[in-house]
Design goal:
Length: 386
C-alpha cells in the first residue's frame, strides 16, 4: 500500500499529466461559441415551422472528457445533434439528412463568424472552420417515438434502419455516477469564487480524468493502427460502470482499469457493451464486422493495467515520470516533473527513454531514440463516417 505522502505525490503527477492534454479554456470557449451560434441560427431558421428543431452537444464535450489531439495538426471533434421534431412515419433518412443539410447550408451562406465550410459524411454534416483547431459534426435526428423522452433516431447513409441513440440520458447517467465527488469538488472551488461562476466543465472528477487518461493512452497505443482503436463510448461506458466513487486519482484509475475487461459481456457469442440507458443497444456492435478489434481491445487493456500498476510500484519520481511518458506522451511527463521541481532528463541523457518501434509509445530500451524535442504522435481523429 502506498504511504499518504507517496500517494499524494503520485496523484499530483497523474493529475498534472492528464490536465496537460485537457482542452485549453480558450479553445473550449470558442468551440462552444461556434455551436451555440449555429444552434441559435437554426432555431430562428426553423422558427416558423411546426417541426421546429434544436441543436445540442453530445459526446466528450457534454461529458467533460475531451482530450487534445496527439498531433498538433489534428483537430478537436465537436459532436452536435440537430433534432427535427417530425414523426418517423412522415420522413425518411434521406429526406431528414437533406432537410438538416439545407438548414446548415443556409447558415454557412449567411457568413457567420469563422466562415465555416460544409461537407457531408455518412451520418452527419461537418462544419470545418479554417484556421481553428476543431470541426463540428452535426448529426440529423428525430424523436424516437418508441423510446424514452430523450431518445432519438439517427440517419446513416449506409444502413437501411434508423439508428437509436440517447445522448442526453447517457450524459445524465455518466454525471450521476460521479455526482457526489463533483459536488464536493465544486464546493471546494466555490470557496475561492462564487459557486454560480464555477462552470461545470472546469471541475474534473477522478472518473473524468480516468476516461481522459484512457483515451490518451489508447491514441498512443494505436498510433500505427488507428482503425482498431476502441471507440470512446466503449471506454467511457466501461469506466463509468466500474467506477465506485472515492479514492485517490491513482486508486480510481487502477481500480477502473482492472475491472473494465470483465464488464464486456458475451451474448450468444457476440461481444456486448450495453448502453446503460438503452440496454438493447450494443456499443461494441461493430466488433462483429471487425472481429480483430475485440482482441486488440483486450490486448490494449492488458497493457494499460501493466502501465498503471507500474506507477504505484516504482518508488523514484524519475521512474514514475518515465512510465507516465510511456502512457501519455513525453510532454505530459515533463509538465508534471517540472511542477514538482523534477525532470526526466537523466533518463533521456542515458539513452533509456525512447519510442518503441511499431507502437508510438515512449519507454525504456526502445530501438529508436527520441529526438531532443517534445514528442508528438498518434492517429488522426475519426469523423462521422467520412
Amino acid at each position: 500500500m502506498l504511504t499518504d505522502d507517496r500517494s499524494a505525490q503520485l496523484d499530483d503527477l497523474l493529475g498534472i499529466s492528464i490536465a496537460d492534454f485537457d482542452i485549453p479554456d480558450d479553445v473550449y470557449r470558442l468551440a462552444v461559441a461556434r455551436y451555440e451560434d449555429l444552434g441559435a441560427w437554426l432555431s430562428d431558421h426553423w422558427g416558423a415551422s411546426p417541426d421546429d428543431g434544436i441543436v445540442y452537444p453530445q459526446g466528450s464535450f457534454r461529458l467533460g472528457t475531451v482530450v487534445q489531439p496527439v498531433k498538433v495538426e489534428d483537430e478537436y471533434d465537436v459532436d452536435l445533434v440537430c433534432r427535427r421534431d417530425v414523426a418517423k412515419t412522415s420522413t425518411t433518412q434521406a429526406a431528414l439528412k437533406i432537410d438538416c443539410g439545407n438548414g446548415i447550408g443556409s447558415y454557412v451562406a449567411s457568413r457567420p463568424d469563422g466562415l465555416p465550410i460544409r461537407s457531408e459524411g455518412k451520418r452527419c454534416w461537418t462544419l470545418n472552420y479554417p484556421g481553428e483547431p476543431f470541426h463540428i459534426d452535426v448529426l440529423p435526428a428525430i424523436p424516437d417515438g418508441d423510446g424514452k423522452r430523450n431518445a432519438i433516431l439517427l440517419t446513416d447513409r449506409d444502413l437501411r434502419e434508423w439508428q437509436h441513440s440517447n445522448p442526453i440520458d447517457f450524459a445524465d447517467w455518466f454525471h450521476g455516477r460521479m455526482r457526489q465527488e463533483f459536488l464536493r469538488l465544486r464546493e471546494a472551488v466555490a470557496k475561492r469564487m462564487d459557486v454560480a461562476h464555477v462552470p461545470r466543465w472546469q471541475v474534473k472528477t477522478t472518473l473524468q480524468r480516468s476516461v481522459q487518461a484512457l483515451k490518451r493512452h489508447r491514441d498512443l497505443y494505436f498510433t500505427e493502427s488507428p482503425d482498431d482503436r476502441p471507440a470512446s463510448i466503449i471506454i467511457t461506458t466501461l469506466a463509468a460502470t466500474a467506477f465506485t466513487g472515492g479514492g485517490s486519482m491513482y486508486e480510481v484509475l487502477a481500480d477502473v482499469t482492472a475491472k473494465m475487461p470483465g464488464l464486456v459481456e458475451v451474448r450468444n457469442g457476440v461481444y456486448w457493451v450495453a448502453n446503460p440507458v438503452q440496454p438493447e443497444e450494443n456499443f461494441a456492435d461493430r466488433w462483429r464486422s471487425h472481429p480483430t478489434r475485440a482482441g486488440r481491445f483486450f490486448e490494449w487493456m492488458e497493457r494499460v493495467q501493466q502501465d498503471v500498476t507500474g506507477y504505484g510500484a516504482d518508488l523514484g519520481v524519475d521512474r514514475v515520470l518515465e512510465k507516465i511518458a510511456k502512457s501519455f506522451g513525453e510532454r505530459s511527463a515533463l509538465r508534471a516533473g517540472a511542477s514538482l521541481g523534477t525532470e526526466i532528463s537523466r533518463a533521456r541523457e542515458a539513452g533509456l527513454l525512447g519510442m518503441a518501434a511499431g507502437t508510438g509509445l515512449l519507454g525504456t530500451a526502445a530501438r529508436r531514440p527520441v529526438p531532443q524535442h517534445t514528442f508528438h504522435g498518434g492517429g488522426r481523429p475519426g469523423r462521422c463516417g467520412q
